[in-house]
């Protein structure tokens, strides 16, 4: 029996490598690759830094100086127990009296590692809020939040869910966020936000944010685009955000000394009025609020004060009595409504000696926690 030689075919790996080599030698592909490499090299030579996000374009003023998220009224007492620092695990008990916005009691627990951060909050009104963050890579993080508001005298209650993906590059940040997305009623409903912030020079960064929302299937969709800009000086930062729906917000922050920093914010809203508001021909409604605030850091305390053109004056004093005890005093005076609010809070932090030593070691380490 005579054997017939079989034809020799090239291996699959040889075919694949040959195809890749021929594609890489293509003139069009080489031109695109060289252009991208040259652009990336010039980009790296500028030494640009990450500009942050569009929603935090004015955080130096609105979060670091102003009292937007710190002011309260009534009496508060917060007891925090830390079981470990790495990984982070602690629980808190919050008691409140004399405030319509804060429930009488709330329990909070949080757990965090280099990749995972979990936080849950349950109050005496049976309202639940939870947050879960997962870091896929050092640059990419997914954030989820869920809130279930029980019905009370303040409102009928409801539920809210949001999913957010953030990617932080060397000189840009991209965000995609969805709030209450649903397809159960047919068309896609919810609020969807996409933003991109890019550093143009070491001092200037520009951003764009687009919002698409549809409250219900029987309602039409709405969209809005806003443009953001931020410029950093040696000891000052100026930012602005322009909304196509008719709004402008500008902020200016300046460090006057090592302990003192100040900021001013201007929020202007311009909207058209219908016949019921502006007569047969309608009109344009202009509303604006200017706010000025300052923050002074003492050795063991911090004092904030702000005043706006709407007639509100607010102050906040945070005093660290001992390393584990902090006292906070808040006050607000509204000249237009002729009303005043006062708040006093005591925060006590408890931890074992081993946990305290672990916290001091992490605090002196150059590596900062990811969340």
TrEMBL record:
Gene3D superfamilies: Porin. InterPro entries: Porin_dom_sf, Porin_Euk/Tom40, Tom40. This is Mitochondrial import receptor subunit TOM40. It is found in: Mitochondrion outer membrane. Signal peptide: none annotated. It is a multi-pass membrane protein. Its main location: mitochondrion. It comes from Neodothiora populina. Keywords: Membrane, Mitochondrion, Mitochondrion outer membrane, Protein transport, Transmembrane, Transmembrane beta strand, Transport. Belongs to the Tom40 family.
């Amino acid at each position: 029996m005579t054997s017939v030689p079989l034809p020799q075919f090239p291996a699959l790996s040889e075919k694949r490598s040959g195809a890749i080599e021929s594609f890489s030698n293509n003139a069009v592909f080489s031109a695109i690759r060289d252009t991208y490499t040259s652009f990336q090299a010039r980009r790296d030579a500028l030494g640009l830094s990450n500009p942050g996000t569009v929603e935090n374009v004015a955080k130096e003023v609105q979060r670091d100086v102003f009292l937007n998220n710190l002011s309260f009224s009534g009496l508060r007492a917060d007891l925090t127990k830390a079981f470990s620092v790495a990984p982070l695990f602690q629980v808190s008990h919050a008691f409140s009296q004399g405030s319509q916005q804060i429930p009488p009691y709330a329990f909070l627990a949080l757990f965090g590692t280099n990749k995972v951060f979990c936080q849950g909050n349950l109050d005496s009104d049976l309202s639940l809020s939870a947050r879960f963050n997962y870091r896929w890579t050092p640059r990419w993080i997914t954030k989820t939040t869920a809130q279930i508001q029980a019905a009370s005298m303040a409102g009928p209650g409801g539920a809210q869910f949001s999913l957010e993906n953030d990617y932080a590059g060397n000189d840009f940040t991209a965000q995609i966020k969805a709030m209450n997305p649903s397809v159960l009623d047919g068309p896609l409903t919810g609020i969807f936000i996409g933003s991109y912030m890019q550093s143009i020079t070491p001092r200037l960064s520009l951003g764009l944010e687009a919002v698409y929302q549809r409250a219900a299937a029987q309602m039409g969709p709405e969209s809005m685009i806003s443009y953001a800009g931020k410029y950093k000086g040696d000891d000052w930062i100026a930012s602005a955000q322009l909304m196509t729906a008719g709004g402008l917000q500008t902020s200016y922050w300046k460090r006057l000394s090592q302990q003192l920093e100040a900021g001013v914010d201007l929020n202007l809203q311009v909207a058209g009025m219908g016949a019921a508001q502006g007569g047969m021909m309608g009109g344009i409604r202009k509303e604006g609020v200017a706010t000025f605030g300052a923050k002074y850091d003492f050795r063991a305390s911090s004092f904030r004060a702000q005043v706006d053109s709407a007639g509100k004056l607010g102050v906040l004093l945070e005093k660290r009595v001992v390393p584990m005890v902090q006292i906070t005093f808040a006050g607000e005076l509204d000249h237009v409504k002729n009303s005043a609010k006062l708040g006093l809070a005591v925060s006590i932090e408890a931890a074992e000696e081993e946990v305290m030593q672990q916290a001091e070691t992490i605090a002196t380490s150059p590596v900062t926690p990811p969340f």
